[in-house]
Design a protein that fits this description.
Alpha-lytic protease prodomain-like, membrane, Cation_efflux_TMD_sf, Alpha-Beta Plaits, about 65% helix
Protein backbone atom coordinates (compact mmCIF):
# COMPACT_ATOMS: atom_id res chain seq x y z
CA UNK A 1 0.00 0.00 0.00
CA UNK A 2 1.43 3.34 -0.97
CA UNK A 3 2.35 5.75 1.77
CA UNK A 4 0.04 8.49 0.52
CA UNK A 5 -3.05 6.28 0.47
CA UNK A 6 -5.54 7.40 3.13
CA UNK A 7 -6.06 5.04 5.99
CA UNK A 8 -9.56 3.66 6.37
CA UNK A 9 -9.60 3.30 10.11
CA UNK A 10 -8.50 6.83 10.90
CA UNK A 11 -11.03 8.70 8.75
CA UNK A 12 -14.46 9.89 9.71
CA UNK A 13 -16.48 7.74 7.31
CA UNK A 14 -16.52 4.68 9.57
CA UNK A 15 -17.90 6.81 12.41
CA UNK A 16 -20.53 8.29 10.06
CA UNK A 17 -21.59 4.81 8.95
CA UNK A 18 -21.90 3.58 12.54
CA UNK A 19 -23.76 6.69 13.81
CA UNK A 20 -26.21 6.55 10.92
CA UNK A 21 -26.87 2.87 11.61
CA UNK A 22 -27.39 3.58 15.33
CA UNK A 23 -29.95 6.33 14.72
CA UNK A 24 -31.82 4.26 12.14
CA UNK A 25 -31.90 1.12 14.29
CA UNK A 26 -33.06 3.00 17.38
CA UNK A 27 -36.02 4.47 15.50
CA UNK A 28 -36.86 1.14 13.91
CA UNK A 29 -36.67 -0.69 17.25
CA UNK A 30 -39.28 1.62 18.78
CA UNK A 31 -41.61 1.24 15.79
CA UNK A 32 -41.32 -2.54 15.73
CA UNK A 33 -41.87 -2.87 19.46
CA UNK A 34 -45.03 -0.77 19.35
CA UNK A 35 -46.32 -2.63 16.29
CA UNK A 36 -45.47 -5.98 17.87
CA UNK A 37 -47.48 -5.16 20.99
CA UNK A 38 -50.43 -3.87 18.94
CA UNK A 39 -50.56 -6.81 16.51
CA UNK A 40 -49.39 -9.58 18.83
CA UNK A 41 -46.99 -10.79 16.12
CA UNK A 42 -44.07 -12.90 17.39
CA UNK A 43 -42.11 -12.13 14.22
CA UNK A 44 -42.50 -8.38 14.78
CA UNK A 45 -41.42 -8.71 18.42
CA UNK A 46 -38.42 -10.78 17.29
CA UNK A 47 -37.55 -8.06 14.79
CA UNK A 48 -37.86 -5.45 17.56
CA UNK A 49 -35.32 -7.44 19.59
CA UNK A 50 -33.18 -7.64 16.45
CA UNK A 51 -33.16 -3.85 16.13
CA UNK A 52 -32.46 -3.40 19.85
CA UNK A 53 -29.46 -5.72 19.48
CA UNK A 54 -28.30 -3.73 16.44
CA UNK A 55 -28.59 -0.49 18.41
CA UNK A 56 -26.43 -1.90 21.21
CA UNK A 57 -24.02 -3.11 18.54
CA UNK A 58 -23.59 0.38 17.07
CA UNK A 59 -22.93 1.77 20.56
CA UNK A 60 -20.22 -0.83 21.08
CA UNK A 61 -18.72 -0.05 17.67
CA UNK A 62 -18.55 3.66 18.51
CA UNK A 63 -16.73 2.69 21.71
CA UNK A 64 -14.37 0.58 19.61
CA UNK A 65 -13.59 3.46 17.25
CA UNK A 66 -12.90 5.87 20.10
CA UNK A 67 -10.82 3.62 22.35
CA UNK A 68 -8.75 2.01 19.60
CA UNK A 69 -7.54 5.42 18.40
CA UNK A 70 -5.59 6.12 21.61
CA UNK A 71 -1.81 6.41 21.10
CA UNK A 72 0.69 3.90 22.44
CA UNK A 73 1.94 4.38 25.98
CA UNK A 74 4.19 2.63 28.52
CA UNK A 75 1.62 -0.01 29.45
CA UNK A 76 0.59 -0.67 25.84
CA UNK A 77 3.67 -0.02 23.70
CA UNK A 78 1.99 -1.36 20.56
CA UNK A 79 -1.05 0.87 21.02
CA UNK A 80 -4.73 0.15 21.62
CA UNK A 81 -5.66 -0.91 18.10
CA UNK A 82 -6.93 -4.34 19.19
CA UNK A 83 -9.58 -2.72 21.37
CA UNK A 84 -11.55 -2.34 18.16
CA UNK A 85 -11.61 -6.12 17.82
CA UNK A 86 -12.59 -6.69 21.45
CA UNK A 87 -15.58 -4.34 21.31
CA UNK A 88 -16.58 -5.70 17.91
CA UNK A 89 -16.54 -9.18 19.46
CA UNK A 90 -18.81 -7.87 22.22
CA UNK A 91 -21.10 -6.56 19.48
CA UNK A 92 -21.35 -10.08 18.04
CA UNK A 93 -22.24 -11.39 21.51
CA UNK A 94 -24.90 -8.67 21.79
CA UNK A 95 -26.48 -9.72 18.51
CA UNK A 96 -26.73 -13.29 19.78
CA UNK A 97 -27.82 -12.59 23.36
CA UNK A 98 -30.23 -9.71 22.72
CA UNK A 99 -31.59 -10.71 19.35
CA UNK A 100 -31.29 -14.40 18.56
CA UNK A 101 -32.25 -15.74 22.00
CA UNK A 102 -35.34 -13.52 22.20
CA UNK A 103 -36.39 -14.53 18.67
CA UNK A 104 -36.10 -18.23 19.56
CA UNK A 105 -38.10 -17.73 22.76
CA UNK A 106 -40.89 -15.85 20.97
CA UNK A 107 -40.98 -18.36 18.13
CA UNK A 108 -41.12 -21.27 20.55
CA UNK A 109 -43.91 -19.68 22.60
CA UNK A 110 -45.98 -19.02 19.49
CA UNK A 111 -45.57 -22.56 18.15
CA UNK A 112 -46.52 -23.89 21.59
CA UNK A 113 -49.77 -21.92 21.41
CA UNK A 114 -48.81 -19.37 24.06
CA UNK A 115 -48.58 -16.38 21.75
CA UNK A 116 -51.10 -13.55 21.51
CA UNK A 117 -53.87 -13.56 18.93
CA UNK A 118 -52.84 -11.45 15.95
CA UNK A 119 -54.92 -8.30 15.44
CA UNK A 120 -54.67 -5.22 13.20
CA UNK A 121 -52.01 -6.73 10.86
CA UNK A 122 -52.16 -3.59 8.69
CA UNK A 123 -50.19 -1.78 11.40
CA UNK A 124 -47.50 -4.41 11.07
CA UNK A 125 -47.36 -4.10 7.29
CA UNK A 126 -46.96 -0.32 7.46
CA UNK A 127 -44.24 -0.48 10.14
CA UNK A 128 -42.32 -3.17 8.26
CA UNK A 129 -42.44 -1.12 5.05
CA UNK A 130 -41.21 2.00 6.85
CA UNK A 131 -38.49 0.01 8.62
CA UNK A 132 -37.34 -1.46 5.29
CA UNK A 133 -37.04 2.01 3.75
CA UNK A 134 -35.11 3.35 6.77
CA UNK A 135 -32.84 0.30 6.91
CA UNK A 136 -32.00 0.79 3.24
CA UNK A 137 -30.49 4.20 4.07
CA UNK A 138 -28.02 2.70 6.55
CA UNK A 139 -27.33 -0.31 4.32
CA UNK A 140 -26.62 1.94 1.31
CA UNK A 141 -24.05 3.94 3.29
CA UNK A 142 -22.31 0.75 4.44
CA UNK A 143 -22.27 -0.66 0.90
CA UNK A 144 -20.97 2.62 -0.52
CA UNK A 145 -18.07 2.72 1.94
CA UNK A 146 -17.25 -0.97 1.48
CA UNK A 147 -17.20 -0.68 -2.32
CA UNK A 148 -15.02 2.42 -2.18
CA UNK A 149 -12.47 0.78 0.08
CA UNK A 150 -12.49 -2.45 -1.94
CA UNK A 151 -11.95 -0.47 -5.15
CA UNK A 152 -9.06 1.44 -3.56
CA UNK A 153 -7.35 -1.90 -2.87
CA UNK A 154 -8.27 -3.30 -6.30
CA UNK A 155 -10.26 -6.15 -4.78
CA UNK A 156 -13.75 -7.55 -5.06
CA UNK A 157 -16.10 -6.68 -2.21
CA UNK A 158 -16.18 -10.29 -0.97
CA UNK A 159 -12.40 -10.58 -1.01
CA UNK A 160 -12.07 -7.24 0.76
CA UNK A 161 -14.47 -8.34 3.51
CA UNK A 162 -12.47 -11.53 4.03
CA UNK A 163 -9.07 -9.84 4.45
CA UNK A 164 -10.06 -6.46 5.93
CA UNK A 165 -8.69 -5.64 9.39
CA UNK A 166 -11.45 -3.07 10.04
CA UNK A 167 -14.43 -4.88 11.61
CA UNK A 168 -16.66 -1.83 12.04
CA UNK A 169 -17.93 -1.41 8.49
CA UNK A 170 -18.15 -5.19 8.03
CA UNK A 171 -20.29 -5.43 11.17
CA UNK A 172 -22.66 -2.68 10.03
CA UNK A 173 -22.92 -4.15 6.53
CA UNK A 174 -23.68 -7.66 7.77
CA UNK A 175 -26.18 -6.60 10.41
CA UNK A 176 -27.97 -4.23 8.00
CA UNK A 177 -28.12 -7.00 5.39
CA UNK A 178 -29.49 -9.35 8.04
CA UNK A 179 -32.00 -6.68 9.07
CA UNK A 180 -33.36 -6.42 5.53
CA UNK A 181 -33.68 -10.20 5.27
CA UNK A 182 -35.28 -10.28 8.73
CA UNK A 183 -37.88 -7.72 7.67
CA UNK A 184 -38.81 -9.86 4.67
CA UNK A 185 -39.15 -12.89 6.97
CA UNK A 186 -41.30 -10.93 9.42
CA UNK A 187 -43.50 -9.67 6.57
CA UNK A 188 -43.92 -13.24 5.30
CA UNK A 189 -44.82 -14.54 8.75
CA UNK A 190 -47.28 -11.72 9.38
CA UNK A 191 -48.87 -12.10 5.95
CA UNK A 192 -49.21 -15.89 6.07
CA UNK A 193 -50.70 -15.65 9.55
CA UNK A 194 -53.18 -13.10 8.24
CA UNK A 195 -54.09 -15.22 5.21
CA UNK A 196 -54.32 -18.62 6.89
CA UNK A 197 -55.30 -17.68 10.41
CA UNK A 198 -52.56 -19.96 11.72
CA UNK A 199 -49.98 -18.56 14.15
CA UNK A 200 -47.56 -21.31 13.10
CA UNK A 201 -46.26 -19.13 10.28
CA UNK A 202 -45.57 -16.28 12.68
CA UNK A 203 -43.65 -18.61 14.98
CA UNK A 204 -41.65 -20.08 12.09
CA UNK A 205 -40.72 -16.57 10.92
CA UNK A 206 -39.52 -15.70 14.43
CA UNK A 207 -37.37 -18.85 14.57
CA UNK A 208 -35.95 -18.08 11.12
CA UNK A 209 -34.98 -14.59 12.31
CA UNK A 210 -33.23 -16.19 15.28
CA UNK A 211 -31.25 -18.51 12.99
CA UNK A 212 -30.30 -15.52 10.81
CA UNK A 213 -28.96 -13.64 13.84
CA UNK A 214 -26.98 -16.66 15.02
CA UNK A 215 -25.27 -16.89 11.62
CA UNK A 216 -24.39 -13.17 11.67
CA UNK A 217 -23.15 -13.32 15.28
CA UNK A 218 -21.01 -16.39 14.56
CA UNK A 219 -19.50 -14.85 11.42
CA UNK A 220 -18.55 -11.64 13.22
CA UNK A 221 -17.32 -13.49 16.30
CA UNK A 222 -15.04 -15.72 14.23
CA UNK A 223 -13.60 -12.74 12.37
CA UNK A 224 -12.78 -10.80 15.53
CA UNK A 225 -11.45 -13.90 17.28
CA UNK A 226 -8.81 -14.27 14.58
CA UNK A 227 -7.83 -10.60 14.82
CA UNK A 228 -7.65 -10.71 18.63
CA UNK A 229 -5.44 -13.79 18.64
CA UNK A 230 -3.03 -12.13 16.24
CA UNK A 231 -3.64 -12.64 12.54
CA UNK A 232 -1.02 -12.37 9.84
CA UNK A 233 -1.14 -9.17 7.79
CA UNK A 234 -2.80 -9.05 4.39
CA UNK A 235 -1.01 -11.67 2.22
CA UNK A 236 -0.53 -9.05 -0.49
CA UNK A 237 1.33 -6.80 1.96
CA UNK A 238 3.45 -9.76 3.12
CA UNK A 239 4.43 -10.65 -0.45
CA UNK A 240 5.24 -7.07 -1.39
CA UNK A 241 7.30 -6.52 1.76
CA UNK A 242 9.22 -9.74 1.18
CA UNK A 243 9.95 -8.79 -2.43
CA UNK A 244 11.04 -5.27 -1.41
CA UNK A 245 13.49 -6.59 1.19
CA UNK A 246 14.85 -9.23 -1.19
CA UNK A 247 15.72 -6.51 -3.72
CA UNK A 248 17.95 -4.56 -1.32
CA UNK A 249 21.65 -4.88 -2.25
CA UNK A 250 22.74 -5.42 1.37
CA UNK A 251 20.37 -8.37 1.85
CA UNK A 252 21.62 -11.79 0.79
CA UNK A 253 18.44 -13.63 1.79
CA UNK A 254 15.14 -13.04 3.57
CA UNK A 255 15.26 -15.92 6.06
CA UNK A 256 11.97 -15.31 7.86
CA UNK A 257 9.18 -12.73 7.75
CA UNK A 258 6.69 -12.40 10.61
CA UNK A 259 3.73 -10.03 10.59
CA UNK A 260 0.83 -9.44 12.95
CA UNK A 261 -2.14 -7.10 12.73
CA UNK A 262 -2.07 -4.89 15.85
CA UNK A 263 -5.00 -2.68 14.84
CA UNK A 264 -6.82 -1.34 11.81
CA UNK A 265 -4.12 -0.35 9.30
CA UNK A 266 -1.43 -1.19 11.86
CA UNK A 267 0.99 -4.05 11.24
CA UNK A 268 3.96 -5.26 13.26
CA UNK A 269 6.79 -6.59 11.09
CA UNK A 270 9.73 -8.73 12.18
CA UNK A 271 12.15 -9.64 9.38
CA UNK A 272 15.10 -11.99 9.88
CA UNK A 273 17.66 -11.16 7.23
CA UNK A 274 20.99 -12.62 6.14
CA UNK A 275 23.02 -9.51 5.33
CA UNK A 276 26.12 -9.22 3.18
CA UNK A 277 29.04 -10.46 5.30
CA UNK A 278 31.22 -7.59 4.12
CA UNK A 279 29.14 -5.09 6.10
CA UNK A 280 30.78 -3.86 9.29
CA UNK A 281 28.88 -3.33 12.52
CA UNK A 282 28.40 0.40 11.98
CA UNK A 283 27.33 -0.12 8.35
CA UNK A 284 24.90 -2.84 9.42
CA UNK A 285 23.30 -0.52 12.00
CA UNK A 286 22.92 2.28 9.45
CA UNK A 287 21.47 -0.18 6.93
CA UNK A 288 18.82 -1.41 9.41
CA UNK A 289 17.78 2.15 10.24
CA UNK A 290 17.58 3.07 6.56
CA UNK A 291 15.60 -0.03 5.61
CA UNK A 292 13.10 0.53 8.42
CA UNK A 293 12.54 4.14 7.38
CA UNK A 294 12.12 3.27 3.72
CA UNK A 295 9.75 0.42 4.56
CA UNK A 296 7.47 2.80 6.48
CA UNK A 297 7.56 5.24 3.58
CA UNK A 298 6.69 2.50 1.09
CA UNK A 299 4.06 0.66 3.13
CA UNK A 300 1.89 2.93 5.28
CA UNK A 301 0.39 0.07 7.28
CA UNK A 302 3.73 -0.94 8.79
CA UNK A 303 3.75 0.47 12.31
CA UNK A 304 6.53 -1.26 14.27
CA UNK A 305 9.45 -2.77 12.34
CA UNK A 306 12.12 -5.10 13.71
CA UNK A 307 15.02 -6.20 11.49
CA UNK A 308 17.14 -9.04 12.87
CA UNK A 309 20.46 -10.06 11.28
CA UNK A 310 20.70 -13.87 11.23
CA UNK A 311 22.73 -16.52 9.41
CA UNK A 312 20.49 -18.38 6.99
CA UNK A 313 22.09 -21.77 7.79
CA UNK A 314 21.38 -21.69 11.54
CA UNK A 315 19.76 -25.10 12.30
CA UNK A 316 17.52 -23.90 15.15
CA UNK A 317 16.11 -21.02 13.11
CA UNK A 318 15.65 -23.31 10.14
CA UNK A 319 13.67 -25.75 12.29
CA UNK A 320 11.37 -22.95 13.55
CA UNK A 321 10.69 -21.74 10.02
CA UNK A 322 10.06 -25.28 8.80
CA UNK A 323 7.65 -25.88 11.67
CA UNK A 324 5.68 -22.74 10.79
CA UNK A 325 5.63 -22.85 6.99
CA UNK A 326 6.68 -26.35 6.00
CA UNK A 327 9.54 -25.12 3.85
CA UNK A 328 12.57 -22.90 4.25
CA UNK A 329 12.79 -19.61 2.40
CA UNK A 330 15.10 -20.01 -0.57
CA UNK A 331 18.12 -17.86 -1.13
CA UNK A 332 17.71 -15.12 -3.69
CA UNK A 333 19.55 -15.72 -6.93
Amino acid sequence: MAADQPKRGEGGESSLTVVLALVVNLGIAVMKAVAGVITGSAALLAEAAHSVADTFTEGLLLTALRRSARPADRRHPFGYGKERYFWSLMAAVSIFASGAVFAFVEGGRTLAGEGQEQVRPVVGYVVLALAFAMELVSWTQAVRQTRREARAENRSVLRYLRVSDDPTVKTVLLEDSAALVGLVLAFAGLGLHDLTGSAVWDGIASLAIGVLLVVVAYTLGRTNKGLLIGRQADPRLVRETYAWLARQPEVEAVVDLLTMVTGTDRVLLCARLDFDDSLGVAALERTCVRLAGELRAEFAELDEIFLEPVPRADPHLRARVLARYGQITRRRT
